Amino acid sequence: MIASLKPRVALLFGGHSLEHSVSCISAWWTLQHIDHSKYLVVPIAIDKKGKWHVLKMSAIKPYLSLNKSLIEQVDSEESIPTGWLDPRFESGNELFSPSLIKKSIDVAYVMIHGFPGEDGSLAGLFSYLDIPVVGCGAMALSIGMHKIMSKQIVSGAGIDVAKYQAVKKSNPYSVDAIVDTLELPLFVKPVNSGSSIGISKVHNKEGLRESIELAFNFSNEVLIESMVYGREIEVAVVEIEGRAVACPLGEIISGSDFYSYSAKYDKNSPATTRLPQDIDPGAYKNLQETAIKVFEALSFKGMGRIDFFLTKKNRVVFNEVNAIPGFTPISLFPMMAKAHGISGIELTTLLIENALAKTDSLSLLC
Ligand SMILES: Nc1ncnc2c1ncn2[C@@H]1O[C@H](COP(=O)(O)OP(=O)(O)O)[C@@H](O)[C@H]1O
Ligand SMILES: [Mg+2]
């Protein structure tokens, strides 16, 4: 880092996955909540073909506006004051080559859900370049994104998970045997997607093969799970001075069959999110403590959203983790952090400072 300059934070967003638009919205929230008196931002858009572009300030809004269906949720009156961005990048829309990155930035803030952010690909590249990343390192990201691997580690730590089976594209499977073992209804999921993309809820045997084949369009391995009947509870965990801290809980009320892509993002979706006040105090504490256990078992750093089901009998069942959770207007993570007393600007500062404190190669990788 050049001593006289503020640390340069590369904010990466977009990416060539189906979650491109969601990432752009989360990046917009992040850009607005970075402390611009402390850091210079280098906004890097990865387009749908995988090309990297450093955006000059005037190009950010039009770029984000390309994602029409979601951008409506962002207040169009908001704009970015001059002086927030590194002036050296103001003039260009140039291709940002990875070999130049090391000379140009001090820390990478990857706000890309799914590939190539949340799965650890970019964190691996940055760790190779000796550049710290905000949040988890490549290993925790790739395991956290893999729904089967993360379940195995979490259940190995003594935490309840739904009954499940894995099916590989290259291997034959028996629909009858799966239904006999797991019982209907079932959830069929690509192992490494997000935003409910490729996920089906299966109510009958006939629908199972179709749902498995659909999920194979997104990954070579598919997870099939028994349905857990319960409330959907999310826990934001933030690393503060080296300790994992659980924030007040959040709840999703999907208002439909399950929390599908359309339930998450359609304008007219009946889904709502809230900070529940009616959970049994013992179960509340158990959810927070279990979230911390999951965070630690998976070697998470910086932040993580840990999702559970809470049954009528207050059984806590792990669902999945999100190392780069959504920061859209409906996302629970910023609300839960705020309820703990961590404002948006405090959260991004905490994450950037945690990242800048990573100095050795092991802390960059993990
Ligand atoms: N085993 C399950 N039992 C009940 N509902 C489930 C189960 N698995 C997934 N769901 C529903 O499907 C949604 C998406 O599944 P999830 O594993 O969280 O995928 P994603 O990573 O895409 O968010 C969940 O929010 C929940 O509504
Ligand atoms: Mg989920």
Number of domains: 3
User: What name does CATH use for the topology of the largest domain?
Assistant: D-amino Acid Aminotransferase, Chain A, domain 1
Mean pLDDT: 88
Give the topology string: H per helix, E per strand: EHEEHHHEHHHEHEEHEEEEHEHEEHHH
Distinct small molecules bound, one entry per kind: adenosine-5'-diphosphate, magnesium ion
Please compute the radius of gyration using only Cα atoms.
Answer: 20 Å
Quantity of strands, as a count: 14
Catalytic activity: 2 D-alanine + ATP = D-alanyl-D-alanine + ADP + phosphate + H(+)
GO molecular function: ATP binding; D-alanine-D-alanine ligase activity; metal ion binding
Domain ATP-grasp: 151-353
Family: Belongs to the D-alanine--D-alanine ligase family.
Description:
This protein has 366 residues and is α+β, with helices and mostly antiparallel strands. It has 3 domains: 8-135, Rossmann fold (3-Layer(aba) Sandwich), CATH 3.40.50; 144-159 and 229-356, ATP-grasp fold, B domain (D-amino Acid Aminotransferase, Chain A, domain 1, 2-Layer Sandwich); 164-226, Dna Ligase, domain 1, CATH 3.30.1490. It is built from 14 helices and 14 strands. Strands 9, 10, 11, 12, 13 and 14 form a 6-stranded antiparallel β-sheet that branches. The chain has a 4-stranded mixed β-sheet with strand order 3-2-1-4, with helices on both faces. A hairpin with a 5-residue loop joins strand 2 (40-46) and strand 3 (52-54). Bound molecules: adenosine-5'-diphosphate and magnesium ion (MG). Magnesium ion (MG) binds next to loops. Adenosine-5'-diphosphate binds at residues 162, 187, 189, 193-196, 199, 225, 227-228, 232, 254, 258-259, 307, 319-320.
